[in-house]
Write a structure and sequence with these properties.
Layout: E1 12-14, H1 52-61, H2 68-78, E2 83-86, H3 93-104, E3 114-117, H4 121-134, E4 143-146, H5 152-160, E5 165-168, H6 170-179, E6 189-193, H7 195-200, H8 204-213, E7 219-224, H9 229-238, E8 243-246, E9 256-262, H10 268-279, E10 284-287, H11 291-303, E11 308-311, H12 317-328, E12 334-337, E13 352-355, H13 362-369, E14 379-385, H14 388-401, E15 406-407, E16 424-429, H15 439-449, E17 457-462, E18 467-472, H16 473-484, E19 488-489, E20 492-493, E21 496-499
Parallel strand pairs: 1-8, 2-7, 2-8, 3-5, 3-6, 4-5, 6-7, 9-14, 9-15, 10-12, 10-13, 11-12, 13-14
Antiparallel strand pairs: 16-18, 16-21, 17-18, 19-20
Helix pairs in contact: 2-3, 3-4, 6-8, 13-14
Length: 503
């Protein structure tokens, strides 16, 4: 027997501040009720009865209390109830399903017990990184990421060693199931993360094929930022009495200021440069509609003294990874991206977003501006309109948001962008966790043997097969020279390179 979900039979929770109802009923005809989630809740992780190791990890990470999606979703998840969770990007949903997943894990059994399906490789990597942080105090937890753009052979070897948690994209997971290199017959916990994007990207057939291989008796949860009718129909076939939980899907108006500027034909990029010079953000995310526009704008800004990185779907996975780590560690302050960066990427809250061309889809605009004004911080989202078609898009967006976007005041700043020069450079080491390398090994080698000041090493990101080190640009060449002259890390000679071609 498969899962036969019924809308309206499970309990439903909706937090204050939601943009609008996503479902107006369904199933047995029950309608969603407002106000039942406004009551005070205990936001302490300690009240959940989690394993001591998970509580220790939460303390070490610095998670002091639950976010709204965690406070409302974790109790039913820990009880084994199917959940549909709607929350804006950055709301903490990964930790919500991640803690429930790890709580249910039998660490003595080396077979896939839990799986998280994600629409993109970037999101899968982000989810895997968060799960590893949450389980850092749990012994013998084995997690494998199954995504395209990486050698299947390495994934097969990892599966043969016994994986308990699978995080992957539908295409690669389906491929392993067809080859017989992955078995999900013992799976008890399944999550579809960013489920609406999976539908938008055409993964529904692969998702259904994967679900057909999973046991009928399992806990299934869907998490996403929006829930169109297609998600309701999917839930009807894969979940049992799901609990629907919705938290705010829009940034609070008090936290986010939106402005719109009109550009003359052919002056879109100069206007973007003027906006950066006027507002002088510490960092910014700039959205373009096409891959070509991303590359052209990134080159335009870089030539004007503001090193910018492009991110879009035409890039190789390795290059996309390099871009994200450089932006995250301060080796570049500007990221120019298509919608691939609007949702699901591990990009921290930003002070400023510039939408260089409005999207025809109002919901896409919502996700773009959602990258700023998060976690209680003030944010600024600026949209550029340069054609009559974009003016019509603006009108649709304002109708969707139910608010007028304020025209920006005149710009007075000069054109200089030197303040956006990156303070760091990224040293990429071709060795990582699989080589038993630790962050302390890297820091010790660069400081004790390489002669770098301790404070010049700003951040170390350790991955499975590589390690990215953010180094004060004044000392970056010395660090590279040390390794190229035969310097060792943990008694190993390690290949290294500096990312970013700008000086």
């Amino acid at each position: 027997m498969g899962h036969l979900g019924r809308w309206g039979t499970g309990a439903q929770v909706q937090l204050a501040g939601c943009a609008r109802p996503v479902f107006d009923g369904g199933g047995q005809g029950a309608r969603r009720r407002r106000g039942d989630s406004r009551r005070p809740m205990n936001t302490s992780f300690a009240a959940l009865g989690l394993r001591p190791e998970l509580l220790e990890a939460l303390t070490q990470i610095g998670y002091e209390e639950m976010t709204p999606i965690q406070a409302h979703a974790l109790p039913p998840l820990l009880e084994g109830v199917d959940v549909i969770g709607q929350a804006m990007t950055g709301g903490g949903k990964t930790a919500a399903f991640g803690l429930a997943l790890l709580q249910s894990l039998d660490v003595e059994r080396y077979a896939p017990q839990a799986m998280v399906l994600c629409p993109t490789r970037e999101l899968a990597d982000q989810v895997a990184a968060e799960l590893r942080r949450l389980c850092q105090r749990l012994a013998n937890v084995r997690l494998v990421v199954l995504c395209g753009g990486r050698p299947p052979r390495d994934q097969v070897l990892a599966l043969q060693h016994g994986a308990q948690i699978i995080v992957g994209t539908p295409g690669r997971v389906s491929d392993h199931l067809r080859r017989g290199t992955l078995s999900v017959r013992d799976l008890g916990f399944l999550v579809l993360d960013e489920a609406d994007r999976m539908l938008d990207m055409g993964f529904i057939d692969e998702v259904r094929a994967i679900l057909a291989e999973c046991p009928a008796e399992r806990q299934t949860s869907l998490f996403s930022a929006t829930f169109p009718n297609e998600i309701q129909r999917l839930s009807d076939t894969i979940q049992i009495r799901p609990r629907f939980i919705e938290v705010a899907t829009q940034v609070e108006p008090t936290q986010l200021r939106q402005l719109v500027y009109t550009a003359e034909p052919g002056q879109r990029h100069p206007l973007v440069a003027k906006l950066l010079a006027e507002h002088r953000p510490e960092s910014a995310l700039l959205f373009c509609e096409t891959r070509s526009d991303c590359d052209v704008l990134a080159s335009y800004l870089t030539k004007r003294g503001a090193p910018a990185l492009a991110l879009h779907g035409q890039m190789e996975q390795r290059d996309r990874d390099d871009v994200l780590v450089q932006f995250a560690n301060g080796s570049a302050r500007l990221l120019v991206a298509t919608n691939v960066a609007a949702r699901g990427l591990d990009i921290p809250a930003l002070p400023m977003v510039i939408i260089t061309e409005l999207s025809p889809d109002p919901e896409s605009h919502l996700h773009r501006i959602g990258r700023t004004g998060r976690a209680g911080e003030a944010g600024l989202a600026i949209s550029v309109v340069a054609t009559p078609a974009e003016q019509h898009r603006l009108e649709r967006i304002e109708a969707f948001l139910e608010q007028r976007i304020e025209p920006g005041p005149p710009l007075t700043a000069g054109p200089g962008l030197s303040f956006l020069a990156a303070p760091n450079r990224t040293l990429l080491l071709l060795a990582g966790r699989r080589d038993k390398v630790r962050k302390g090994d890297v820091l010790g080698a660069l400081v004790k043997e390489g002669g770098l000041p301790m404070e010049s090493v700003r951040r170390i990101d350790l991955m499975d097969q590589s390690c990215a080190v953010a180094i004060d640009r004044e000392w970056a060449e010395q660090a590279l020279d040390y390794l190229r002259r035969g310097g060792r890390i943990k008694k190993m000679q390690v290949r290294a390179m500096l990312l970013g071609s700008w000086q």
